[in-house]
Amino acid sequence: MTVKEITSILEERAPLAFAEEFDNVGLLVGDPHMEVTGILVTLDTLEAVVEEAVEKNCNLVVSFHPILFKGLKRLTGATYVERTVALAIRHQVALYSMHTALDNVRQGVNGKICEVLGLQRTRILIPKQGMIKKLVTYVPRGQKDALLEKLFDAGAGQIGDYSHCSFSLEGTGSFLPSEQANPAVGQPGKLHLEPEAQLHLTFTADREPAVLQALFAHHPYEEAAYEVTPLSNAHQHLGMGMVGELESPMTPGEFLKLVRERFGTPCIRHSRFHDRLVSKVAVLGGSGAFAIDAARAAGADILLTGDVKYHDFFRAADRMVVADIGHYESEQFTKNLLVDYLTEKIPNFAISLSETKTNPINYF
Questions:
Q1: C-alpha span between 58 and 39 (Å, rounded)
Q2: Residues 6 or more apart in contact with residue 133 via CB below 8 angstroms
Q3: Which keywords belong to this entry (predicted)?
């Protein structure tokens, strides 16, 4: 398999269009047409990880964090980023990153945290804006169903757990073909009135190329009239963080003891405990202090995240506990998630879980 074939499988799980605008995801180093000898999955790509990949005959490293986040102006080996990229190029190891594309899907970083904690009735904490678009097109009534099926196959009309979602209105379309036209109905030079159906379908932004390709390939008219409009609706099944419920409520202390055991973190920084039991839990892997207000609004009793600053702990007040379990610790299971997914999709391929410790933080 080629790099592109494997990354296409990864993008079925987490399309790159779902990533945040500030992010740098996808293939960062390497030839997309290179044949892959093996895949090494890691949280971070460092020099030691590239060396491990070479030892294991893996020429594709799939990471969560991107090693290239800001533009490189030189490759002199002055920084760990430059050295890592240069080493990958020297050994022809491709580097691919998923980062916030995987953050924003339900079965991604935060979904895995919920699984480890055993949370139930989970939902997205901060639904993502700007990911839904709407297609409006016009088709002869008798060919409406055939076109709809092709658009559904391309990914249009999917709303949460519902598929084949559409709305149609009936009316009369008019057009005057020129002498150079080759109309499917009507005649050149004559005004034509056609009983038509107006179709409305929504789709996620990552599906737009496929949806438009299906429209152009299967619309009966020589020139398909259509509109694509971005919607301001938040996507309830995409976004940052998740919130769920414990099977049985417990005290904040009991819950953090459970977290310490399951995440292996030697130290949890937290705001003051309140008197209520912990029942509803919000989670956001990585740097998640920006989710404090959303977690409070969702009625969470505690927010688990990392990289919380001093003043952010005050924002929780007495209504919610904020617990910083560490950036690495909160995202550590992401690489296991990716290995399991790739193994399921390509079971006869060499896929390795990196053994290199990449957490830059040590505890004394």
A1: 5
A2: 202, 203, 204, 205, 208, 228, 229, 230, 231
A3: Metal-binding
pLDDT in tens, 303-342: 999 999 999 999 987 789 999 999 999 999 999 999 999 9
- The b/e string for 84-120 (b: 16+ C-beta within 10 A; e otherwise) is bbbbbeeeebbbbbbbbbbbbbeebbbbbbbeebebe
Residues 6 or more apart in contact with residue 75 via CB below 8 angstroms? 82, 85, 86
CA distance 11 to 6: 9
Q: Is 168 exposed, middle or buried (0-12, 13-18, 19+ CB in 10 A)?
A: middle
DSSP state for residue 67 in the 8-state scheme:
S
- Residue 48 buriedness (CB in 10 A; 0-12 / 13-18 / 19+): middle
pLDDT at 318: 76
CA angle 7, 236, 314 (to 5 degrees): 100
**What is the pTM (predicted TM-score) of this model?**
0.90
In this predicted model, what pLDDT tens digit does every residue of 35-79 receive, in sequence order?
999 999 999 999 999 999 999 999 999 999 999 998 889 999 999
Q: Strands, DSSP E only, in the chain?
A: 26-29, 39-42, 60-63, 94-97, 120-128, 132-140, 167-175, 192-204, 226-230, 235-250, 269-270, 278-287, 302-306, 321-324, 351-353
pLDDT digits (tens, 9 = 90+) for 228-286: 999 999 999 999 999 999 999 999 999 999 999 999 998 999 999 988 899 999 999 99
Structure tokens at 225: 């009239």
Taking the C-alpha atoms of residue 341 and residue 12, their distance in angstroms, rounded to an integer, is 11
Domains in the chain, ordered, with CATH? 3-101+333-353 (3.40.1390.30), 109-126+239-325 (3.40.1390.30), 132-233 (3.30.70.120)
Q: What is the DSSP string of 215-276?
A: HHHH-SSSS--EEEEE----EEEEEEEEEEEEEEEE-HHHHHHHHHHHH--S--EE----SS
- Closest among 46, 45, 38 to 1, alpha carbons compared: 38
